[in-house]
Amino acid sequence: MKHVDEYRDGRLARALAERIADAASRGGGRYHFMEFCGGHTHAISRYGLEDLLPESVQLIHGPGCPVCVLPVGRIDSAIRLAERPEVTLCTYGDMLRVPGSRGVSLLRARAAGADVRMIYSAADAVELARAEPHREVVLFAIGFETTTPPTALAIRLAERLGVKNFTVFCNHVLTPSAIQNILESPEVRELGRVRIDGFIGPSHVSTIIGSTPYEFFAEEFAKPVVIAGFEPLDVLQAVHMLIRQVNDGRHEVEIQYGRAVRPEGNEHAKADVAELFELRKSFEWRGLGTVPYSALRLKRAYAQFDAERRFELEDLPGREVPGCQCGAVLRGVKRPPDCKLFGTVCTPETPMGSCMVSSEGACAAHWTYKRFREPRPAALAEGGA
Amino acid sequence: MNRPARRPLDIRAGRVELAHGAGGNAMAQLIAQVFQPALDNEWLRRGNDQAAFDVDSRRMVMTTDGYVISPLFFPGGDIGSLAVHGTVNDISMAGAVPRYLSASFILEEGFALADLERIARSMGEAAREAGVPVVTGDTKVVERGKADGVFICTTGIGVVPPGIDVSVERARPGDQILLSGSLGDHGVAIMSCRHDLRFETELTSDSAPLHALVAAMVAAGGTALHAMRDPTRGGLAATLNEIAHQAGVGIHLRESAIPIKPAVAAACELLGLDPLHVANEGKLVAFVAPEAAQAVLEAMRAQPLGRDAALIGEAVADPHRFVQMTTGFGGGRIVDWIAGEQLPRIC
């Protein structure tokens, strides 16, 4: 397949792996890099990239999985919305399976009678609102900077077409504030329990926001960032670039994903988002807790499209499943197999925590592609049945 | 005939009515005008509620399957041909020769008779092509909204040649794993014409009867042919995990050996799917003792439906029964069951 196969070439991979091993042995130390994005986590697991890295290079999964970081309370709010008789709630596939409080997901709510629809693009929700004018169609919008512009365009479309029965339950979050929060967390900063020597920076997110937003914390926290594509060779090359920065004592923002990312990002998309959305003072993230200025909401001028205003939604205090370690996994403090629920009661079939739901979640990726690497209790051996 | 005369069915513009399933004259007319001509054979012609036939074997296989696919017509087939192929294939996977089918139709009130006739004809053609007659059937009609057009259940029986014992628990460490052709054609063809996805592709479903391919494999491999299964829903990944669990073996695959068409790979890339999870309706995977693997592979390649057959891996001793794969990239990973539902009503 053109434009894909060349980034999955096994021969090139082996050559690059040799250069990585070379650079790592020249540096002599150990390297701990966090890949922020779930897309990277998935590529690393799916292609078995860790098999190609020397033992001295460790990859730590970060929180960049949009369905993983949404707190239980927001999922409960979405379920309450979907349960209203006049509401049709639309969202992306993975979101349907994420358990809220007491393990109830949107999928379960649907089985119990709620009108929940899976969509492939935000514009589909506007189409649905036009086709079913007697329904209140709510787009349960989630995701990082990549999915915000499509939500903005959907609202613009609804405005232009005069669609009155379409609103957005906005849960869009911001990448740079989350990275900064991780670097400021006590585990990284004071306790030194998690060592992070650099970041593999987001690929699709950076096509929108560019590379400049990362410059502040690369400088402030002296951590190199390499913005990398989601193909396996992209990831390997980024690891090589990070090792070279560490060896040279540099902490710069470099772009490996030059075929899609420009330093200034996508000005059109940024302008659309800036016109419709404003920063929330704070937002709760699963795992990271309350992070200041880390999420977006609709501006007052677009209040008619804001589901939180139209349905007077309150913040619900969500309850995590006892024992679930998604929070620690999302911060890189624990690895998926460190959680007692992992692979026993929590599997992709019956997820207890959000990290087990999406294929980009650290737990799901580990379970699906890598569990053969773990010395395991008997329960794990059964797998998948 | 003691039945009152009725006007012939308006197949071009008519629709299924509740009376067509009520056991009365209307139902007899539907059977006589739609099903009988399409599926015609000596057993149906006798008009009994069952079919009687002689069987020349001590060992028989029987299987049943329900077909609820959406859409009913898709590139490369429809629910009628699929209902024949799927059941013929389930019988063939025991190394058996399929002999007879039954068909049960559940129709939704209001379903276009023209579509029903098209489906029945397609079913008749598929049955004739496979040499497996539909010898008995049943028709029910449910109220509008209680079904989606038409659901079909087919049951099949077949006979097993003497000495042949193909069964999933017979897979053992050392067995070579043969795949009959490229993966994912059916699932991607279906997805391409689903209302909410809809993309353009020249791909067609691989829906096909596999009994001739199986007969060639049985002739070449005999008792060395240990296990076979057709990777339908859940794709090759689900099928291999089922076999690993039932036989108590591990499986090692080589990704670079697995045939996948560029169009399927591209669609999966776009939709975020793993081709190993995508459904097939005309492929099989076989576990063969190593000494016979080459002969069986060559026999497969000599058949039209096995032209692209490939040796994709082997069974190994593994108490964890993992299905593992060396990726084209050089790393290792698990090939897992798909979690949840990739796409409902794929067959």
Number of DSSP-assigned strands of chain A? 13
Uncertain runs of chain B are: none
Strand percentage of chain B: 15-25%
Question: What's the CATH superfamily of the largest domain in chain B, by name?
Answer: PurM-like C-terminal domain
Order of helices and strands of chain B: HHEEEHEHEEEHHEHEHEHEEE
Major sheet of chain B: 7 strands, mixed
Low-pLDDT ranges of chain A: 376-385
Rounded to the nearest angstrom, the distance between the terminal CA atoms of chain A is 33 Å
Overall pLDDT metric of chain B:
93
CATH homology superfamily of the largest domain in chain A: HypD, alpha/beta domain 2
- Say what the CATH topology of the largest domain in chain B is: Phosphoribosyl-aminoimidazole Synthetase, Chain A, domain 2
Average of pLDDT of chain A: 90
- Specify the number of helices of chain A: 16
Outline type of chain A: globular
Helix content of chain B: 25-40%
* C-alpha-based Rg of chain B, rounded: 21 Å
Distance between the termini of chain B: 40 Å
If interface size is counted as residues with C-beta under 8 Å from the partner's C-beta, which chains form the largest one?
A-B, 38 and 28 residues
Determine the structural class of chain B based on helices, strands and strand pairing.
Answer: alpha+beta
Question: How would you characterize the overall build of this protein?
Answer:
- By secondary structure, chain A is α/β, with parallel strands linked by helices.
- Helices cover 38% and strands 16% of the residues of chain A.
- Chain A is built from 16 helices and 13 strands.
- Chain A has helices at 10-27, 38-46, 72-83, 106-111, 122-131, 148-161, 175-184, 186-189, 204-209, 215-220, 232-248, 267-276, 307-310, 326-330, 362-370, 378-382; strands at 31-37, 57-64, 87-91, 115-118, 136-143, 166-172, 198-201, 225-227, 253-255, 277-279, 282-285, 289-292, 296-298.
- The model of chain A is unreliable at 376-385 (pLDDT under 50).
- In chain B, 30% of the residues lie in helices and 22% in strands.
- Chain B is an alpha+beta fold and 347 residues long.
- Chain B is globular.
- Chain B contains nine helices and 13 strands.
- In chain B, β2 and β3 (77-78) form a beta hairpin.
- Chain B has two domains: 18-159, 60s Ribosomal Protein L30, Chain: A, CATH 3.30.1330.10; 168-334, PurM-like C-terminal domain (Phosphoribosyl-aminoimidazole Synthetase, Chain A, domain 2), CATH 3.90.650.
- The two termini of chain B are 40 Å apart.
- In chain B, α1 (25-39) packs across α4 (113-130), α3 packs parallel to α4 and α6 runs antiparallel to α9 (290-301).
- In chain B, the strands form three sheets. Chain B has a seven-stranded mixed sheet with strand order 8-10-7-11-9-12-13. Chain B has a four-stranded mixed sheet with strand order 1-6-4-5.
